[in-house]
């Protein structure tokens, strides 16, 4: 049967949640410290607790050596001969015990032993707390408010106390002593006073745990929470998706008449919650994440850097950004992308600036001759040095320049309009001139190629079998020469037409002479000296 002392040790161990062997070791160490202090000895002291009798014995231990020449420290070593006087079974390399009476230690030694025991137990308790909670980060646990120390709230979490600093609290919440709440275990810190457990009510894991508790579809895995972005006490955005096509993920989280989400909002003391359907496409997901604002379009600026550009209507810009940028900030956290929000007007101005930068042309005012030198000097004094800057000015802005009135504004407007009209009329003329010049160059090239091809066709370069045929046909040979240049082909078509027309006229003349009837004498007319008629025989 265990002694009363050992039973008390086991009771203390269960209360502190530590191993009884640690408490027994602490008691033995305490007796050693008290014995050393009382005897003022430098020997190797040890203590031993007898579980059955509850007696604690202290003794000095010396190592056994062969002879006196091997003894280096008499407090730690003993010769074999001296050891056999104490223990007949002693051997070299073993140990021998010399027991010290403990009943003479007194009150001071007992008090010292008590302090040592308490210190050892506290160290063991801290180590146990650290080992238990260090591996439970982001876990939601139940806690009871124990006390409030300044801005911090101290919770009782069972085996230890937990601290919730101000930055881990929601601004909407206040706590009363004895109140039970759910907190997220953030981390365990080691310090001089022992391990400090830090808990939070502002972590996103708290919202996730509340949804798992209130929504059965999330608990059984039908609906999955893909992302959470939270600013405690303000707003939370949660992205959910359903693994079952017949289950509406958003509807399951909201519940009948909003009962499920309303219970979570009450637990969070009225914090706003946006439930968004998750989408794999970043563009579509961004449109949903920026709700309740309506997005005009979303474009990916850099997919590697995860950068999005969102364009919204001018009336939706403030809603998309949110109070102090909260809406777009939470959306960016939810997506994991950088988001730039611009209104339609801002995007238009940006495009205009980019176009102006690409064009990069500026026309000095001196090119507009209708303005006159005096008016140009007034405009230059007003900071306008180019025609483009002048064209962007409104009549009201021009009238603010010293020396320019309504009539001068009309003159400027007319001069600028005439200048741009002259530029527009000059562009088609220049284009037509360029086309004509190009056609003339093409015709010249075609004629040159035709002449070169014609010069290259000679009797020496032709086949002898076809030489006679070519000579008899005259220009037909040149007409039948194969060419690939379109200009040459067109030139030869005209030549062929001319040749064919001339040959046809010549053939008609010859046929008319050959087919004419024989002419009589009377039909022959002569000019000059008359020829006498022949005499009849």
Automatic annotation (TrEMBL):
InterPro entries registered for this protein in UniProt: DNA_repair_Rad51/TF_NusA_a-hlx (IPR010995), KH_dom (IPR004087), KH_dom-like_a/b (IPR015946), KH_NusA_2nd (IPR058582), KH_sf_prok-type (IPR009019), NA-bd_OB-fold (IPR012340), NusA_N_sf (IPR036555), S1_domain (IPR003029)
Pfam families: HHH_5, KH_NusA_1st, KH_NusA_2nd, NusA_N
Coiled-coil ranges per UniProt: 334-361
Domain S1 motif: 138-202
Principal location listed in the UniProt entry: cytoplasm
Bias kind Basic and acidic residues: ranges: 524-537
CDD domains the UniProt entry points to: KH-II_NusA_rpt1, KH-II_NusA_rpt2, S1_NusA
UniProt-annotated location(s): Cytoplasm
GO terms under biological process: DNA-templated transcription termination; transcription antitermination
GO cellular component, one term: cytosol
This protein's UniProt keywords: Coiled coil, Cytoplasm, RNA-binding, Transcription, Transcription antitermination, Transcription regulation, Transcription termination
Transmembrane portions of the chain: none
Molecular-function GO term, any one: DNA-binding transcription factor activity
Highest taxon above the source species: Bacteria
Chain spans, region Disordered: 453-491, 517-537
Family: Belongs to the NusA family.
Subunit and partners: Monomer. Binds directly to the core enzyme of the DNA-dependent RNA polymerase and to nascent RNA.
Function: Participates in both transcription termination and antitermination.
UniProt-recorded name of the protein: Transcription termination/antitermination protein NusA
Organism: Candidatus Korobacter versatilis
């Amino acid at each position: 049967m265990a002694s009363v002392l050992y039973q008390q040790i086991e009771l203390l161990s269960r209360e502190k949640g530590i191993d009884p062997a640690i408490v027994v070791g602490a008691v033995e160490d305490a007796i050693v410290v008290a014995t050393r202090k009382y005897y003022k000895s430098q020997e190797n002291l040890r203590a031993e607790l007898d579980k059955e009798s509850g007696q604690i014995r202290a003794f000095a231990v010396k190592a056994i050596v062969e002879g006196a020449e091997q003894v280096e420290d008499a407090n730690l070593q003993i010769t074999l001969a001296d050891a056999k006087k104490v223990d007949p079974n002693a051997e070299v390399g073993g140990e021998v015990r010399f027991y010290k009476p403990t009943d003479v230690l007194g009150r001071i030694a007992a008090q010292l032993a008590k302090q040592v025991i308490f210190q050892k137990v506290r160290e063991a308790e801290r180590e146990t707390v650290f080992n238990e909670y260090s591996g439970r980060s982001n876990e939601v646990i139940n806690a009871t408010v124990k006390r409030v120390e300044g801005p911090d709230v101290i919770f009782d979490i069972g085996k230890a106390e937990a601290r919730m600093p101000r930055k881990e609290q929601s601004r909407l919440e206040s706590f009363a002593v004895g109140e039970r709440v759910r907190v997220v275990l953030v981390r365990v810190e080691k310090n001089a006073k022992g391990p400090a457990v830090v808990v939070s009510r502002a972590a996103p894991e708290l919202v996730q745990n509340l949804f798992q508790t209130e929504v059965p579809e999330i608990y059984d895995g039908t609906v999955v929470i893909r992302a959470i972005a939270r600013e405690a006490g303000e707003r939370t955005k949660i992205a959910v998706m359903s693994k079952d096509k017949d289950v509406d993920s958003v509807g399951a989280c909201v519940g009948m008449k909003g009962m499920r989400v309303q219970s979570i909002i009450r637990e969070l003391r009225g914090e706003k919650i946006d439930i968004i359907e998750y989408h794999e496409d970043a563009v579509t997901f961004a449109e949903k994440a920026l709700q309740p604002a309506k997005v005009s379009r979303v474009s990916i600026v850099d997919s590697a850097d995860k950068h999005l550009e969102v364009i919204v209507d001018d009336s939706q810009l403030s809603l998309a950004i949110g109070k102090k940028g909260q809406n777009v900030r939470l959306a960016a956290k939810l997506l994991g992308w950088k988001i730039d929000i611009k209104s339609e007007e801002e995007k238009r101005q940006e495009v205009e600036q980019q176009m102006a930068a690409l064009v990069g042309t500026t026309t000095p005012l001196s090119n507009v001759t209708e303005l006159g030198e005096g008016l140009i000097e007034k405009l230059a004094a007003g900071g306008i040095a180019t025609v483009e800057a002048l064209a962007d000015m409104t009549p009201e802005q021009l009238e603010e320049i010293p020396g320019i009135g309504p009539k001068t504004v009309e003159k400027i407007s007319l001069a600028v309009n005439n200048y741009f009209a002259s530029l527009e009329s000059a562009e088609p003329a220049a284009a037509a001139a360029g086309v004509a010049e190009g056609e003339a160059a093409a015709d010249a090239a075609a004629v040159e190629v035709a002449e070169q091809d014609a010069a290259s066709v000679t009797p020496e370069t032709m086949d002898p079998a076809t030489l006679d045929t070519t000579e008899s046909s005259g220009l037909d040979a040149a007409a039948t020469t194969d060419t690939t240049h379109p200009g040459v082909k067109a030139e030869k078509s005209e030549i062929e037409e001319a040749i064919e027309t001339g040959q046809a006229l010549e053939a008609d003349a010859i046929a008319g002479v050959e087919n004419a009837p024989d002419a009589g004498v009377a039909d022959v007319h002569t000019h000059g000296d008359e020829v006498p008629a022949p005499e009849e025989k």
